[in-house]
Amino acid sequence: MNIAILVLFKFILYLPLLPNGNLPFFSKHLAIPLLLTYPPMFTLDATTITEIQGLSFITGLVGFTQELTTSPTDNKAATFEASGDPWGVVTITVIDSSITLYTQTGSKGKKRRITVNNFTTGGTLDNSGHAVFDQNGYLDNIRVGATANIGAGTQAGDYSGSTTLRLVYQ
């Protein structure tokens, strides 16, 4: 019997104070900043993050305690691309240190779970999650890996959950 694991991502965009001390405001659509300053000191391009592939792991086996690790260089790593300010310096991180993934209801009506932690970044991000948008405001090959911790008593099934990927302009 096998265990399949998939992590989905939600996105948050943070911006620091503007040079004039004002905070940017956002439209109700995530990651589309609207600058409400007068006179405008500068404008920010709309920032978007697109998930290309969710994070997954090799298939685990039931009955064994295992740590399944997907590094950012693996083909099962989560991959993203983003668009934003040309030459914008950003930090991109997973905000949770660990998350719990669940499967359908197990025996006796109990949901089964697996913990995922040790999120790491790679691709165009350095080990601290820092990167710079190119001259066109494009950043690709954003990669995230992690470790899935499977207990010996974990039941077979498809496990899924989500966490939040945060992009912060520096």
Explain this structure:
β2 and β3 form a beta hairpin. It is built from no helices and 14 strands. The chain is mostly beta strands. The protein starts with a strand and ends with a strand.
The class by helix and strand makeup works out as mainly beta
Give me the Rg, rounded. Answer: 19 Å
The topology string of helices and strands comes to EEEEEEEEEEEEEE
What percent of residues adopt helix (DSSP H or I)? under 10%
Report how far the terminal alpha carbons are from each other: 47 Å
Describe the largest sheet. 6 strands, mixed
Q: What is the residue-mean pLDDT, rounded to a whole number?
A: 75
Query: Which overall shape is indicated by the principal axes computed on the Cα atoms?
Result: elongated
* Low-confidence sequence ranges: 13-43
Count of helical regions: 0
Q: Tell me the number of strands.
A: 14
Q: What's the structural domain tally?
A: 1
Query: What's the quaternary structure here?
Result: single chain
Which properties best describe this structure?
170 residues; mainly beta; six-stranded antiparallel sheet; 14 strands
Short description:
With 170 residues, the chain is mainly β. The chain has strands at residues 2-14, 25-26, 33-34, 48-53, 55-56, 60-61, 66-70, 78-83, 89-94, 98-105, 111-123, 130-132, 138-150, 157-169.
Could you give the topology of this structure?
Layout: E1 2-14, E2 25-26, E3 33-34, E4 48-53, E5 55-56, E6 60-61, E7 66-70, E8 78-83, E9 89-94, E10 98-105, E11 111-123, E12 130-132, E13 138-150, E14 157-169
Parallel strand pairs: 1-14
Antiparallel strand pairs: 1-5, 1-6, 2-3, 4-8, 7-13, 8-13, 9-12, 9-14, 10-11, 11-13
